[in-house]
TrEMBL record:
InterPro entries linked: ATP8_metazoa (IPR001421)
The family this protein is said to belong to: Belongs to the ATPase protein 8 family.
Gene name for this UniProt entry: ATP8
Endpoints of the signal sequence: none
Protein name: ATP synthase complex subunit 8
Subcellular localization, as worded in the UniProt entry: Mitochondrion membrane
Subunit annotation: F-type ATPases have 2 components, CF(1) - the catalytic core - and CF(0) - the membrane proton channel.
GO biological-process terms attached to the record: proton motive force-driven ATP synthesis
UniProt superkingdom: Eukaryota
Organism: Jellisonia amadoi
Membrane topology field: Single-pass membrane protein
Length: 52
């Protein structure tokens, strides 16, 4: 049983890191297409981060 705990935390950490990477990727893909409209992009990016 004691061997089960570290593996569980490792899997949990892996899942959280994957989720974090996905959020960064989504933010990157949202930020890049509207690069020309510089005035409204930071607001949109901030809004999306707060939504998550």
């Amino acid at each position: 049983m004691p061997q089960m705990a570290p593996m569980y935390w490792l899997i949990l950490l892996l899942i959280f890191s994957i989720m974090f990477m996905f959020i960064i990727l989504i933010n990157y893909f949202i930020y890049t297409p509207s690069n020309s409209n510089y005035s409204s992009t930071p607001m949109k990016k901030n809004h999306f981060i707060w939504k998550w």
